[in-house]
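Weekly structure sync, notes
Attendees: PL, DS, HV (note-taker this week)

Item 1: Diphthine--ammonia ligase
DS walked through the input record. Source organism listed as Ignisphaera aggregans. Sequence as pasted into the shared doc:
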Amino acid sequence: MKFCALLSGGKDSNYALYRALKEGHTLACVVIVKPIRDDSWLFHAVYPEIALLQAEAMGLEKEKVFLFEVSGEKETEVSELENYMVKLRKEIDFDTILCGAISSRYQLTRFEKIAGRLGVKVYSPLWGIDQEKYMKQLVEEGFVFVITKIMSMGLPPDFLAKPIDLIHVEKIINLSRLYGFNPAFEGGEAETLVVEAPHYRYSICIEGVRESLTEFEHVFKISKYWLGEKGRTCVAIL
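Item 1 (cont.): predicted structure, written out as tokens:
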């Protein structure tokens, strides 16, 4: 399988890429989609530019990494990405689109539509995974991620920008059972950013401030980001 990975910067797309590489598949390219609107139905809207730094941390050649901007408007953004991918496939040879969808039929069917026009397959290695086990698995396999945005009742704002360990995962699972939100945030309850991963050669360092927008909406506003030494997680909360 020769795949083109859709990378958002979050845990799911990063883990899907890691899984595909671990399974021995060939990475042809990475596409990072930047929605203009913050309320995109399909794409990660928080700091997609940092995904470029993640690609660099993986050691990917710049010629394999593409940043594409979409409107962020429902369905229109799907057509925009579809047209872009058609052009990209004329330059880059791949037979599969890789995505990090877990349970969202909306996401998966849109990517399948794009793949159908290109004549390629969709591979979503996380599809149908037990989400509580998955959250633990991420940490156990060496992924370090932080929550950059909270949009749900039950998730405390002091979780923002904290590197998530197994203790935090247990708390998230317990809170999800209590308040009824998705433990892997597949319903948009929170957004994440990976700062360390087994397939990274460097860590991602970030600096910023926490800000509460409403009672249940909180963000970590990143003002600075850079590559750091692998194995040394550096997250500065100002």
